[in-house]
Amino acid sequence: MLRHLLGLAALLTAALPAHAQSYPDRPIRIVVPFAAGGGQDILLRHVTPKLSAILGQQVIIDNRAGASGNIGTSLVAKAAPDGYTLGLGSNSTHAANHALFKGLDFDPIKGFDPVIVLAQTPLALVVNANVPARTVPELVAYVKANPGKVNYASAGVGSPTHLSGVLFNRVAGTDLVHVPFKSSAPALVDLVAGRVSVMFDTFPATTSFVKAGQLRQLAAVGLARSPSAPDLPTLSEAGFPGVETYFWSAIFAPAGTPQPILDKLNRAFNEALADREVTTKLEELGYVLVKDSKPETARAFVAAEFKKWTELVRLADIQPE
Amino acid sequence: MSDVGTGLLLGLSVALTAQNLFYCFAGAVFGTLVGVLPGVGPVVTIALLLPVTFTLEPTSALIMLSGIFYGAQYGGSTTSILLNMPGETSSVITCLDGHAMARQGRAGAALGISAIGSFFAGTVATLVVALFAPALTRLAIAIGPADYFSLMTLGLVGAVVLAQGSLLKAIAMVALGLLLGLVGTDVNSSVARFDFGVPELTDGLNFAVVAMGLFGIGEILTSLERNVGAGHIAAYGRVLPSLAELRQSAMAVLRGTGIGTVLGVLPGGGPSLGAFASYTLEKRLSREPSRFGRGAIEGVAAPESANNAAAQTSFIPLLTLGIPSNAVMALMIGAMMIHGITPGPQVITARPDLFWGVIASMWVGNLMLLLLNLPLIGLWVRVLRIPYRLLYPIILLFSCVGIYSLSNSTVDVALAAGFGVLGYVLTKLAFEPAPLLLGFVLGPMMEENLRRAMIMSRGDPSVFVTEPVSAGLLAAAAILLLLTILPTVRRGREVAFQE
Amino acid sequence: MIARWKGDACAGIVLALLGLGVIAMARSYSIGGAARMGPGYFPLLLGGLLALLGALIAVKAYLAAPQDVIPAADWRALAWVPLAILLFALAIERFGLVAASLVLILAAGLASRQTRLLELPILAAAMAVVAVLIFAKGLGMPLRIWFF
User: Fold this and answer.
1) pLDDT score recorded for residue B7
2) What is the per-residue pLDDT for A235?
3) Does residue A115 sit within a domain?
4) A residues 136..165 contacting B (CB < 8 A)
5) Please, what is the angle between helix B388-407 and helix B218-226, to 10°?
6) Are A44 and A32 in contact (CB under 8 A)?
7) Cβ-defined contact of B342 to A214 (cutoff 8 Å)
8) Are A168 and A116 in a shared domain?
9) Do A215 and A127 fall within a single domain?
10) I want to staple A114 with a disulfide (CB 3.0 to 4.6 A). Which of A298, B214, B272, B324 is the partner?
11) A26 by DSSP, 3-state: which?
């Protein structure tokens, strides 16, 4: 039996180069391990129509939500490495989840060949408009003047919104109390109501409340300023370096996908992302697209992120379950 | 006021264009047809249709999606009444008296009152949304975790009240439901609880799986045992409710509308909580509470009005804050974002055509559904004429495909079989599945808010009585519990004395 | 057929045991304190409540001893319906919607004493077609249709 399988595998491998030239000759499926209509799903849905046109084959989105993205991601890891099953991955599925959950049946680094990093979406440090702080140092002073009294909300334990707070507390020497929520929406309700004072959340989610005068953004969390709020300093510029957390989205193929296919996919994705219409719409929604991401740089990026989030989860003292 | 007037006029001018009327109608028809498939609810339907709405204008897309939402809700009530198959949380209560009425050959009356009550409630709630959306938004924001916890407590007491038989058994069922609700990843610690190593369980049990198993499949097992014969239901009466039945339901519709309108605003569990609460209220106010669960038409009219009113007002947080109050609304946000509209508090001023267009189309959609559904009742009732030996395998097939489609999970299908057997056993032993289901729905929210309130109060439980809303709700729960327990205790004493 | 009080007593005991099981499992999660309850806190309370209620139901059944009986179970339905659903679950991904529909209807049909053996295959074939038309074609669900 085993010999047969090996023989079959050899046959398939031998057939692959020819395959890569004609690739793709049937529809490509991209597994999104999150629900339809969510932030990650929407990003991809803006890209796929263009991508289908470029590749000359239909690109189908298959939402396989569940278990923080682990179910869909495991599906991709087990799929045939032929370029016809790809997966969307994020800082949760390919970085934090491994530290958060015990016994995952896929290896986020060895199990995949990254195709491209699509976007990095920075977070903003936002406070309720009634918090008497207009800058980050003022906020730190306010929290220190009210020890143990100021809450911060998160969109879930282990998410960037939570771990940003853990890092911030460490860097600024504050004691913000973590109040976890199921997702960003209910957390924002309590932030707007003032039951929690601080939150780290994305620009798209918070900007409309800032315009309505209900919330105030104090800083961009991450490496650079956000294009949607160019006047807002980064946390480093405000004097608190070392909090560099953001959401990211990348496309992964199962490990062992032939290099020519990876390159072809990478070029197609880059071309789709460079399309003016796609870019404009996505930037309006607050995504920060990554320019010219290559499979090699994507691999290095994911490895670095994996290390970073594993350490962060340890720092937050979350026990893996 | 004049602002609202101009707004509504603008809205009507948007909603009544030929194009938007078409999408509203298409959504309503499609939603109804899909809603009558057991298990295929609005969430699945909207997720499937998202790509279709891609090509539409954003306002048309939202109008169509809203149409699907109410349509599916109507369709869900239809299966609850005819087949005891609640596709959605909010139509569980409809099963209790709705299906009892169907078994007595009064399916037409039940479906009729459901359509009429829903239309009335939808009309009132749409007006409320137009007039008071900003004020109700403040209510949605003002309700904190302590208040939610107390509201859930009141809901659970209500679950005990709506039970027929033994109080002790009802409370045990609530506790069992609460425990089933705990399966899955804990929000406060990301620990997966009671998942027995099954990855599919880390997201918790799906409501539709539990409800369709306990009610739908359980009902099939019970019917097979009773060996119900050809025609399943001997005779079916009139297609519409009689004048007497209408009079009987009038107050129930009014009260259901009121309760649903208010509770729908609250993010999390609006329509279902509204349906449960209005049923409990009707049962308490009724002179013969024993009729409930045995085909009381008020027991259909009240929750159906409440869940439709709540379905309308659950749009308020979405439209005024960009905050989704349930899974369907979350998909609507997705649909808005796909069209490049960032949902949030400034949608009213930035896109008044969209805001008022959607509101106006709510009413148009409800009218279409009434016109569509009243004639359909005759058709639906005929489903019950199919000999049961042919009907039940068909129901099983549709349910299984529906459940599988929820998240492409075979584990869900297998679980539904298990809950079917559980539903049968519970009915056999005179334990009622309805309180269990309520516990299952309310449990996770109750725990989440209890723990959040305690984190915010730094471990001081007095917040539950010092927050005025929470204190009021807890007092109401205590009074309701006393009113329910005292008569039984007294009766129990009398029985004991007689012996 | 068994006496009602025996049924109630058994149910009470099962619920009580379930409650105890939940307590045992909840103890493996951290319990925490009032200010930051752990994932085991609420289950522990509920497990205790269920154990207590189960015991009360059992005791009450024994004391009150209702005289009526619970009618005998229909083992035929109880075996075939769940089995049919499980077969569907096993077949849907491996062999596709058509095969899964056929096997579900054929197995489910055996649950009723009224089923006519000639009618059943026709119903199964017809419903397989209907299922494909509604779910795969009409709703466009990503379902495998055939087993190849």
Assistant:
1) 85
2) 92
3) yes
4) 148, 151, 156-158
5) 170
6) yes
7) no
8) no
9) yes
10) A298
11) coil
Per-domain boundaries in chain C: 2-70, 75-138
pLDDT band at A1 (very low <50, low <70, confident <90, very high): very low
Determine if residue C70 is left, alpha or beta; phi over 0 gives left, psi from -120 to 50 gives alpha, anything else beta.
beta
One-letter-per-residue 3-state SS of A114-160: EEEEEEEEEEEEEEECCCCCCCHHHHHHHHHHCCCCCEEEECCCCCH
Residue written as token pair 């609700």 = B181
Nearest to B438 by CA among B101, B159, B38: B159
- pLDDT cut 90: percent of chain A above it: 48
Q: Do A171 and A206 share a structural domain?
A: yes
Q: What are the residue boundaries of the structural domains of chain B, listed by start?
A: 2-498
* Torsions phi, psi for C36 (to 5 deg): -140, 90
Whether the ω angle into residue A24 lies within 30 degrees of 0, i.e. cis, is yes
Task: Look at residue A270 and tell me if it is in a domain.
Answer: yes
| Average pLDDT rounded to a whole number, residues A278-298 | 87
**Which of residues 257 through 296 in chain B touch C, CB cutoff 8 A?**
none
Residue B474: band (very low, low, confident or very high) from pLDDT cuts 50, 70, 90: very high
Same domain, yes or no: A204 and A280: no
In this prediction the pTM is 0.85
β-strands A246-254, A112-128 pairing: antiparallel
From the CB of residue A132, how many other CB atoms can be counted at a distance below 10 Å? 10
Sort out which chain A residues have CB atoms less than 8 A from B349's CB and list them: none
Q: Chain B: give the shortest CA distance to residue C1, in Å.
A: 11
Report the distance separating Cα B323 and Cα B343, nearest Å: 8
Structure tokens at B452: 């959040």
DSSP of C84-118, one letter per residue?
Answer: HHHHHHHHHHHTHHHHHHHHHHHHHHTT-TT--TT
How many domains are there within chain A?
2
- Residue C115, min C-alpha distance to chain B (Å): 6
Q: Is residue A97 part of a domain?
A: yes
Q: Quick one: which of B33, B83, B103, B45 has its CA closest to B212? A: B83
Three-state DSSP at A113 gives strand
Mean pLDDT across A161-171: 91
Q: Do residues A128 and A217 share a domain?
A: yes
Tokens 């804990």 -> residue? B186
